[in-house]
Specification:
- There is one protein chain.
- The protein has 1156 residues and is mainly beta.
- The chain contains eleven helices and 70 strands.
- The strands form 20 sheets. Strands 58, 59, 60, 61, 62, 63, 64, 65, 66, 67, 68, 69 and 70 form a 13-stranded antiparallel sheet that branches. Strands 43-46-47-41-54-53 form a six-stranded mixed sheet. It has a four-stranded mixed sheet with strand order 6-13-12-9, with no helix packed on it.
Amino acid sequence: MNTFLLESENDMAYLKLGGQLDYERVTDYIITIRVQNKYNLAAETVVNVAIKDVNDNIPIFKDVAAGTVLEHEPPGAPVMQVRAFDADGTYEFNQVKYELNDHRELFEIDEYTGNITTKITFDREEKDSYVIKVIAMDNAESALLLNGQPNRGQQSFHIIIGDTNDNPPKFTQKNYQAEALENANLNALVTEIRAVDNDTASEVYYSIVDGNPNEQFKMEPNTGKIRVNKNLDYETTTSYNLRVRAFDGIYEDFADVIIKIENVNDERPRFLDFNRNATIPEEELREGCIVKVEAYDPDLPRDVDQHIKYYIVKPELEEFMRIDDTGCLTLIKPLDRDPPNGYEKWQIYINAKDEDGGPNSLHAPTEITIILTDINDNAPYLDMPGPVVWPENKDPGVITKLHANDNDGDNNGPPFHFELDNFAPDVIQKGFRITDDGNSNYQIEAIRRFDREQQKTYFVPIVISDNGIRPMTGTSTLTVVIGDENDNEMKPGHSEIFVYNYKGLSSSVIGRVFVEDEDDWDLPDKTFGWKSSEHRDKFQLDEATGDISVMYNPIYEDVLEGTFDLEFSVWEESRLFERHTVDASVRVVIKKIPEIAIDRSGSIRLANITAEEFIALSKREELQKYIGKLFNISTDNVDVFTAFTTKTGEFLDVRFSAHGSPYYMPEKINGKLAEHQSELEDLIGGKVYMVNIDECLIEKASCESSCMNVLIKHERPQTVRTNRTSFVGVHAEIQTECSCSSPPAENICYNGGTMVGKTCNCPEGYNSGPRCEVIDVGFSGDGYAWYQPLTLCESGRINLQLETGTDNGLVFYVGPLSYSGSPLKVKDFMSLEVSNGFAKLLVDYGTGTSLLEQKEVNIGDGRKHDVEIKWNSKNIELIVDSCTMRTCMSLAAPVGTHEFLNVNGPVQVGGTSKNLGALGSQLGWTYVPTSKGFVGCISNFTFNDHVYNLGEPSYSVSASPGCSRILTQAVTFGIDTNFLVALLVCIAVLLILILAVVVHKRKSDDMYKDHDDIRENIINYEDEGGGEGDMTGYDLNVLRLQHYDGDFKKPHDLLGSRPHDEVPDICGFLDGKKRQVDEENTDEPVDNLRHYAYEGDGNSTGSLSSLASGTDDGDLNFEYLSDFGPRFRKLADMYGEHSSDESEGNYEVPGSESWC
């Protein structure tokens, strides 16, 4: 922008300002002016312009900062210096002076230097800061204001009154009170106290100066928090009076802190001295206290009630004795000193619990020994290991010496006296005798020769007496086995071996060659060999023992299956007869069994029957047929593949599977057999100890808490041998794991899901779990579904969602399915039901039923509700809709002494197959679940986070996976019941009107119908077929005979004339029609030949409708229909003159019911 402008006017040129001038920027200008004529002649001149300064700048403060002055400083104390600058360029305009605009009574400022000083003495506790305004002005009239005054600038400054330690700290109160538990942890906070100090520059420090013996407490110096420093003990000191100090470096203050120690139950009860040994006679029920114990609670003064409860530690002793609250131990049943169930010294452990045995009580044990004096209350018994063997055909002699024992003490025991029972059978008395050598050494002798083939074993009753004060006499049985001698020649024999092939049979002995032989200890005298070479590539024979085993062959080992007839020769030689040979045949049936059959197998545990009896008596085959009949499937679809005696020798375990397509789940098989347990026992002849073998079912028998069953499948088979029948099955047994961990998740996706990485991509259209499980199932009140049982866990949790519009119904039940007097006596169960619209939970650990009800949330309102059930050895919880308030959750303790839920039956959802009322009365449940079925939808059923696949139950009746076909309740849709009834009535009336119109229209059409065109039975079957001819669009003309030259005849004309009672030749009639069709010439392609036996237009066999049509009443004689047989009886009744009802005697059955 040009500062100056040059304007020409005639012969003159004027120099003018083109913009503002600023002296502070440019003080003078040198301007060169050039003039030029038309001849381009020019001249120049220089003009000097000097700028004159004016007062046009306002003083401005620099370095605006806060000032500080300490309190209590005398007047005149410096505070701060302020500085302002004036930008004018000349001295007469840029000299600055200062003055205060406010607080002039407090501060003053030097007008030339800007130094601010105090005029009074300040106290920070009154006011700790000030804001003052300082004015800076220059020394001439302002060129901006034009009011004759100088330019002025103003700035605010913050002045802080500095603090000095001039105030003492003060505690908020002089006396404090606090409480601390005697079992408080170290460093636990007891209380916090504070002292107030008006000075901010001084920091307060806290300390305990007195009343803290042994430094039980410590105090944080900067916060005033008092903490526990050492363990407290109420029984030692009940309170502390601490003297605490607050100090700021100059001043201090004191306060008292009283800390009361709260007594907690941290001391176990202590027993007073007593006589720990008591001596009483055995088998005597003594009145009064055997021993009296007394304990006290160190947490309580001795002169108050100690609230001690006494308990017998071992539950098995509670049937013999009890102890009351006074510590008096009394007998309720006599004690036995003698084995096997008695002890000379009984050790009893007594627990004393304080706080009346409450949940937070502590206990202390003590031991009592009861010494029993002996009485002669046991008869002596024969003490000899196993049976004794006496060879057959041996001359009379001593069989063995006799030894006895007595469970009583030595004073009531030996020496013993033996004699043969006078009531022994004649065969015993004529075969044996007992003799004494005179020194109380007794022996039994054979007094004749024995023949094993006549009798193998003799049970000899021996009477034994002891030497007690009152002698006791007992009878024991000595088993004498007659040893075998090979004195009978063998005969040909036949046996059968059934084998299940599971993962190969290499080198497995499957059975033995059998021959008929009265001798049974003569195997060393026999030699075995092959008679036929057939199947020798598959089986091998041990020539010494006759054992048959499968030969190793990797080609067909795993797939060996079928029936194999093996032929052998057996040689025998004895000192009593010459060497001879017989034939023996063995049929081996091998069936391959897949692994899924074992994984999905059911099982039963039987008592009072051995594996040999189960096989030899064909109980395996009977069980196989029974299961097939129970499930209405072929016996070939049932496999009983395991039968073995348990390790204890007490039970027989049997496993089996069944399949239609696919294999049935074990819950289905076990559940059905459990429902028919009595029939099963009658069939097998043994006692069913357990259905679904569960080694965890008996509490603490295998594990102390959590327990899991694991099916172990051994590759080597299990063999059961009898003489004529042998069974080789799969060795599959249950073993336990003392844990509750879920098995690893299978890398499979259910219901059409696909695996993507480690997760499942599930199809749309239904609610699904992490493995595409269908997570909801619906019921309409008359069904149920079975799922896998619950695992025994130390603590369990079930979560589910339910939606129902009804007030009552069983949501789920898990527990026994039947009761037939099983020695197990396991009656544990759990059930959840909707009762009057609210959730009701029943849980029984086997020693009493706990009832939990939730009365806050109505779950029968048609909405979806969450239900959570938690249980452990101490508590059972029922929570609805995640509500943890006391009003909408229920908490109870298990009833009785059992601690876990032991169940092995299926989880029955939506209802149950059993009448739980009858079952509950048999099992003695305190509360019985309802048997009323559930109406609604159940979803998201999980047990310890394991998602149940509700869409694939093991067995179900009227269950709808996905809740797709549930009977919808009116309340579900919020529809009033009266409105719904009115709506249904309107719909019914409308349907009746529509039906009436349709019937009326059909009758109107029949009035004008051509009677020669019979079409009332034409049906459009949307079946594709007939080759290219199917393009006729279902034209029934293709059904007509193409070349039928004969006259159309009625059916009865084709049968010919006959007497009324003659049986028509139906077979000839049908054969004629068939022959007519076969001989017909047709132009249609072969693949279009069809002859449907439909009545109607073009059908040569006529139409049944013709029975009601025609113009000649003579054609309406249909009496012959009654002679066609039972299949035509209805037609005879409809069109004949006489009824064919057998009660009227007008019908006689002419032979067979068959046409041909």
